[in-house]
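re: the backbone from monday

yeah here it is again, tokenized this time
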């Protein structure tokens, strides 16, 4: 659910998408551990 919301909000901007990608990666890491 959170991932979808983030993707939707970052879809419009590409530069922001990259930044969000990094944030999502960190979030995924925390969730995985």
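seq for it, each position gets an aa:
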């Amino acid at each position: 659910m959170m991932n979808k919301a983030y993707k939707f909000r970052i879809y419009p901007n590409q530069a922001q998408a990259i930044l969000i990608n990094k944030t999502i990666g960190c979030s995924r890491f925390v969730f995985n551990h």
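Residues 6 and 20 are 7 Å apart (CA to CA). Residues 2-32 form one domain.
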